[in-house]
Amino acid sequence: MMLYHVPDLHKGLSEVKRVLSDDGYFYCATYGENGIVPFIAGLLKEYGVKDITNKNFTLQNGYKILKKHFSDVKRLDYEDSLAVTDINDILDYLYSLTNITSIAELKRKDLKEILERKMVNGILNIPKEYGMFICRK
Hints:
Elements: H1 9-19, E1 26-31, H2 36-43, E2 50-51, H3 62-67, E3 72-84, H4 87-96, E4 100-101, H5 108-117, E5 124-136
């Protein structure tokens, strides 16, 4: 379950706990606040680009939120990064995003040049931050 989409998170978690069997587990995945979108927005902040990703439930705040509803909460991180060798691939992805403001206003050629300047040995290394929580009543 992707909890950052739930409009009333505490009400939703209360309902999950209510229907969860005593020996059941609740699994929920989410992203962190230091992944692809924040990285790209940071590179492009001088161009007015901002990260407007929903941060209602992330790896950073999820434990505290879940602990209000469950007695046992464990966080599991998925260690990963993205090694981009063809900037055109990441450009297609970036222009498809809705949670980075003003990126569509940048010309593709300009954005490509900015990202290519960040490449080391032909690779643009972009952090990814994902994980999940496992909860018990």
